[in-house]
Amino acid sequence: MKKKVPVSQIMTRNLIKLHLEDELSVAENLFKKNKIRHLPVVEGEHIVGMLSYNDLMRISFADAIDDDGESIETTVYDMFSIESVMTKKVISISPETTIKEVAEIFTKQDFHALPVVDNDNLVGIVTTTDVIRYLLEQY
User: Fold this and answer.
1) Which helix (H) or strand (E) holds 33?
2) Residues 6+ positions from 62 with CB-CB distance below 8 Å
3) Cα distance between residue 35 and residue 50, in whole Å
4) Which of 1, 62, 86, 126 has a C-alpha 20 to 30 A away from that of 45?
């Protein structure tokens, strides 16, 4: 198994992002439409937070449906902003951080996605799923 492989080899580069001024309903739609669980929150290209699907679920019944099978619009989203729900103290990594180092961070922290930042600009995101896929390819 290669030991010094940089995270840039497995990170997602085509990012789906949120902006601080976005509504929580936008976040819910992005999570569901793209079948993802983590969204970086940006101002310009600078990361200011991370929002996970679990963060959203903590404040709502995002998967509630009515009798017709249609999604119910949740009014709880009107009570919160992206900024009030997102994680603000984000640990970021550089594209040169090794996959091994990323795996170590994931095992010691209580989150499952890391933004990848180069020269203070968000360039990617890596998740626990990305790391597991990489490890599976090694066997």
Assistant:
1) helix 24-34
2) 28, 53, 56, 74
3) 16
4) 62
Mean residue pLDDT of the chain comes to 88
Question: What average pLDDT score do residues 46-68 get?
Answer: 77
3-state SS assignment for residue 17: coil
- Give pTM, 2 decimals: 0.84
The tokens describing 77, both together, are 């989203």
Assign a CATH topology to domain 7-137. Answer: CBS-domain (3.10.580)
- Among 87, 28, 26, which residue's Cα sits nearest to residue 56? 28
- Segments in 40-98 forming alpha helices (H): 53-59, 82-85
pLDDT at 138 over 70: yes
Query: Contact at 8 Å (CB) between 114 and 24?
Result: no
Nearest Cα to Cα of residue 93 among 139, 56, 40 = 40
pLDDT higher than threshold 80 for residue 44:
yes
Which residues, at least 6 apart from 3, have a Cβ–Cβ distance to it below 8 Å? 98, 100
